[in-house]
Amino acid sequence: MKKLPDTISDSALRPIAKKVYEGIPVSAADARRLLATNSILDLGRISSHVRRKLHGGAAYYGVSMNLNFTNICALRCPLCAFSRDAGQEGAYLLAPGEIERRVKTAAAAGVDEVHIVGGLNPELKLCYFEDMLRRIKKIKPGIFITAFTAVEIEYFSRSEGTSVEETLKRLMAAGLGAMPGGGAEIFSPRVRKVIAPLKISGNRWLEIMRTAHSAGLKTNATMLYNHLETDADIVDHLSRIRDLQEETRGFKAFVPLPFHGENTGIAARRASTTGYDDIRIYAASRIFLHNVPHIKALWMYLGEKMAQVLLRFGVDDFSGTYSGEKVVHAAGASTADHGSEAFLRRLILNAGLKPVRTTADYGAFK
């Protein structure tokens, strides 16, 4: 069998493949080459080598629900089509009883995980979120809860007058199992000033994740692309994720998110990404982020067919069933707002991989 470098036809990518084969981290300059190449099949060969080394033929998925408890938000970021002002048409806040009803319904249907994010609602105190987590755990003690972005944690901390460390400890005691990676967007201050001017800085996002990792909480990391960013911004974002991971080993998955611009205040560079755009981003992420175990593709953002293809370009986590998703659909996503387990398993099997049911802690059980 030929070694990986010998299977690469593009001479510009062969030195990168050699580094990957020998276990040497690729450089920022290498990442820029990966993001610019048209040699898609070579990208697939290199990223698949990394994927196979880490996960063999497994592809993970979850049976999960989304709980977007409120869309009332103090920030009203231009990139967001989900948020509302209090009293505005369409604004809502779920009462504890309604949250219980939704979780009970989902638990009865076999859901293993709840994914919780929402707006920064000034009316809510930390006790609301502690109560929410405890109610969910009481309904199904073994359910895994992934909740609250770094942006939310910062807001809870300031509103409560407590440290980030204390805020996290209280939420973990109430049942928090892991944090999603939202709010990272793109770390570039130049772009962040336009797409999310009131959101915490990229540096602060990284600081909060460092604190979460120190507290023993595993997290995801995200990157929003296809808006106003450049390839240099993408490489900087990936580099800072990789650097923090070297320090903490607390990121369990990296999740690139294609920007959906409909109903937002941002004029996107393109109406949508092309297949080549998505492949370059995901494959380059898998190759560059050698120290992050999982690359996750949210099929609701990408469409199920593109997400399925990406399983052969470095992705190992196909995300979940996610019933009730509201955020990306408010921004114009045309995918269904939920998927069945059979649907996800069929897509994975048809890609020639083994479906493995799991939760966000990757404690595979089926």
Write the layout of secondary structure elements.
Layout: H1 14-22, H2 28-36, H3 40-55, E1 58-62, E2 64-67, H4 96-108, E3 113-116, H5 126-139, E4 144-147, H6 150-160, H7 164-174, H8 189-195, H9 202-214, E5 219-225, H10 231-248, E6 251-258, H11 275-288, E7 294-295, H12 299-302, H13 304-310, E8 317-320, H14 327-330, H15 341-350, E9 354-357
Parallel strand pairs: 1-8, 1-9, 2-3, 3-4, 5-6, 6-7
Structure in words:
- The protein has one domain (59-274, 288-357): TIM Barrel (Alpha-Beta Barrel), CATH 3.20.20.70.
- Helix 2 (28-36) packs across helix 10 and helix 6 (150-160) crosses helix 7.
- Helix content is 44%, strand content 11%.
- The longest helix is centred in the middle third of the chain and has 18 residues, at 231-248.
- It has helices at 14-22, 28-36, 40-55, 96-108, 126-139, 150-160, 164-174, 189-195, 202-214, 231-248, 275-288, 299-302, 304-310, 327-330, 341-350; strands at residues 58-62, 64-67, 113-116, 144-147, 219-225, 251-258, 294-295, 317-320, 354-357.
- The protein has 15 helices and 9 strands.
- It is α/β, with parallel strands linked by helices and 366 residues long.
Looking at this protein, list some descriptive labels.
366 residues; alpha/beta; TIM Barrel; three-stranded parallel sheet; 44% helix; globular
Summarize the structure.
The chain is α/β, with parallel strands linked by helices and 366 residues long. The chain has helices spanning 14-22, 28-36, 40-55, 96-108, 126-139, 150-160, 164-174, 189-195, 202-214, 231-248, 275-288, 299-302, 304-310, 327-330, 341-350, and strands spanning 58-62, 64-67, 113-116, 144-147, 219-225, 251-258, 294-295, 317-320, 354-357.
